[in-house]
Amino acid sequence: MKAITALLSLSALLAAFPSQAESTSIEIQKSKLDLPIETATSNAQSWVHVGASSWFPKNLNSPAQMASNTVFQGTGIPALYLDYILQGSARLSTVNFKLGAGWLPLSRNASVDMGGIQTPVNQSAQLVSANLGLEFTPPNLVSRFVTPYLSASLSPQLLLTGRSSFGEGSTQLGITGEGAFGTRLKLSPLGWSQAELDVSASERVGSINASSLSGFGILSGLRVAL
């Protein structure tokens, strides 16, 4: 009788074991199926933006050793910008983070009296900036080919002047704030599926060494998805 009871208990134990193994196998397979889905949704889109702006500081100067301390003028090359733009997380998908740099070449000219002869002199300068900002895209205004946005940024500005008759050259630091309204136009109808035309109007405020950097400008460029 005891032998029969032991056999029945062993049979019941063996019958229960496959169901537990099958349940474990199903759970493992389910977790493997879920893993790629979670990884795919965590990827954020990013872009590289290259552009040029019509903005120009109209009253920018630098200390000089001569009486004729004229303001800097343009060289024919506009302000150039290179930015890296990263889309926010799933909860902040309408917000982009922007980090970049800008460069604007400048020069100024004057005449000095050297022994009764008016001699022209000049000085070159470079205005270099770092840009840190945010972009917001109103989701209800986005269409198939047009994406409007608002942006705000802070930009430390570095003015580097070369040695000349104006002086020995100097390095000056300032900061500007900028607000802009822009739009991105998809170029996929032209066959460029990863590129967008980016155009914005901006207002900038700030100064370097009491010289104003405030002004309005139009920035246009190309935004390419990475």
A few lines on this structure:
The protein is an alpha+beta fold. Helix content is 18%, strand content 52%.
Task: Tell me what you see in this structure.
This protein has 226 residues and is of the alpha+beta class. The protein has 2 domains: 1-43; 44-225, Porin (Beta Barrel), CATH 2.40.160.20. Helix content is 18%, strand content 52%. It has one helix at 2-41, and strands at residues 46-53, 73-74, 79-87, 95-114, 117-136, 146-161, 171-186, 195-208, 211-212, 215-225. It has an 8-stranded antiparallel β-barrel. A hairpin with an 8-residue loop joins strand 7 and strand 8. It is elongated. The N and C termini lie far apart (76 Å).
Helix count, DSSP H or I runs of 4 or more residues: 1
- Could you spell the SSE succession in H and E letters? HEEEEEEEEEE
Work out the radius of gyration: 32 Å
CATH class of the largest domain: Mainly Beta
User: Largest beta sheet, briefly?
Assistant: 8 strands, antiparallel, barrel
The averaged pLDDT comes out at: 82
Strand order of the largest sheet: 1-3-4-5-6-7-8-10
CATH architecture of the largest domain: Beta Barrel
Number of strands: 10
Helix content: 10-25%
Summed up, the domain count is: 2
How far is the N terminus from the C terminus? 76 Å
Structural class: alpha+beta
